[in-house]
Specification:
This protein has 96 residues and is α+β, with helices and mostly antiparallel strands. The protein has one helix and five strands. A three-stranded antiparallel beta sheet has the order 3-2-5, with no helix packed on it. It starts with a helix and ends in a 19-residue tail after the last strand.
Length: 96
């Protein structure tokens, strides 16, 4: 066996393992729906880090889906809010 090639391969393998060990992120996603279970497009979604209070914002797409990639590993909450048409009258919303 050629020693320089084997050493180089082991060094590369160790570097690759160290690089993968540094990934400490995840993706959070979901779908925004209204009280009738219809999807809501262009809804503002906020994800809050429960420990630090750091906030991440995104909008739902045309099918109500949203995603926030590369979140630091932690516990998060997604506070409920309502998307309301300012020109319409709405009464008796169910709780979030």
């Amino acid at each position: 066996m050629n020693l320089p090639i084997a050493t180089g391969f082991l060094g590369l393998a160790a570097f690759a393992a160290a690089a993968f060990a540094q990934i400490n992120t995840s993706t959070m996603d979901g779908t925004v729906t209204d009280p009738q279970s219809a999807t809501v497009a262009k809804a503002d979604v906020t994800i809050v880090n429960s420990l630090t209070g750091q906030r991440f914002h995104t909008l739902s797409d045309d099918k109500g889906h949203w995603a926030v990639p590369a979140l630091p590993t932690a516990t998060y909450s997604v506070p409920c809010s309502r998307v309301v048409d300012p020109d319409a009258t709405h009464d008796n919303f169910p709780p979030c």
